[in-house]
Amino acid sequence: MAKWRDVKQNRASKEKEKINSKSLEDTILNSSIPSRLKAFITDSFLITTPIFYIVIYLIMGSGDDFAQNRAAGWGMIIAIHLLIIVGFLYIKRQTPGMKAYELILVDSSTQQRPSFLQIIIRYIATTFSIISLFLMFVPFFNKEKKTFQDIISNTININEK
C-alpha cells in the first residue's frame, strides 16, 4: 500500500534517481586502473630512480659500497622516498605522476583531504603491496576497483575535475 502511495505522490522515482546518480557519481570519481598504473610508473622514474642513484653514487660513494651496506643504503632510499611522497600527498594531494594523469587523493568517505595518518598508512600499505605480489591484483577482484592501499587507508584516487 505504501508503495502505491509513493508512486502516486511521485516519491518513488526521486529515490530511484538518487540511487542512479550516486552509482554514476562513483564511476565518474573513481580513476581507472591504467591511469593509476601509469602515474605510479611515472613517479618511479621521476622520484625513485634519482633517489636511487643519489644514494648509491653520491652518498654511499659507489656500487661496491652500496653492496657492502645494503641495509643502510635501502634504509636511506626508503626514508627519502617516504619524505618526498608523503610530502607531496599531504601538501598537494598528488604526486607528479598523479598530476600528469589528473588524479588526486581524497578520503573515500568524505571526498575531502586525507589526514596525515591516512597518508602514512597508505604509503606503508603500498610498500607492503609491492613486496607481496598477490596484493597488487586486488583491484581486479574488487567491485569498486580499489587497491589494497585504498582499502587499508580509506583513501581513493579520483579524477581531478
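[next item in queue]
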Amino acid sequence: MVYQMPIHMKNLDIDGLNLRIEQKLLREQAVDILRDAIISGALPPQTKLIERQVARMLGTSRIPARDALLALEREGLVINRNGARSVIQVDEKEIKELYLLRRTLEPMAVELACEHATPENCAPMLDQLNRMREAIASKDGMAYRKSDLDTHRAIWVLADNSLLLRVLDSLMKSIYMVIVYTASIEESWQVTMASHQAVIENIVRHDEPAAVASMRQHIDEVFERVNLVKLKHFTN
C-alpha cells in the first residue's frame, strides 16, 4: 500500500509559516551579558565597544550586538561619542553631586505630592509598587530596575510642578545608572521595596513630615549601597 499525502499538505505554502528564532530573546540575553560584564568589571571603564568585536565576543551576529549596545546606551552604561562607543567612566564626584541633588529635590517632590494625593492620583505609584513586588518574586532584574525608576517618576509627576519634573527628568539617566549598580546586590531588592512602600503610604496618608523623612532615608540607603559596591570597577 502506498501512502498518499493529503492534498492540503501537498499544497502547503511554507512562506506563511513563522518558525524563526525570537530575535528579541537573543537581544535581551546580549544586554544581560554585557551589563553583567560592565558591572563586574570584566569590561572596565572606557573600554572601547566596537560592534563587530562585541558580536564576536558574544558569538552572535552584529544585529543583536548592535541592539544590545543601543539598549545599554539608553541605560547610561555605554556612551557614544561621534559613533565611538565605550563603557562609561563614573567618578566619586559625580556620585556625590547626584546624591546632594536627589536629597534636596526628591523630598521637595514628596512634599508637593502629599498636597495633591487623591486615590486616583496615587494609583500610578501603587501600580509601580505592585510591579516591583512581582519583579522581585520572579527575580526579573530588568523589571525590577524599571519599576524602581518608574516609582520615583510617579512621585515626581504627582508633585504637579512642571519645572521640578523637568529638572528631575534631566537626572533620570544618572539615577537609573545608580539603580543598575545597586540592583547588583539582589539582597537589597526587598529593602528598596520596603522603603518605597513607606514613602508611598505616607504620601497617601498626606503625612508630609513622615513622607519627606522616608524619602531622605531611602536616598541615604541607596547611596550607602553605592558605597558598599564602591564603584570599584568604574573609578580609576
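[queue empty]
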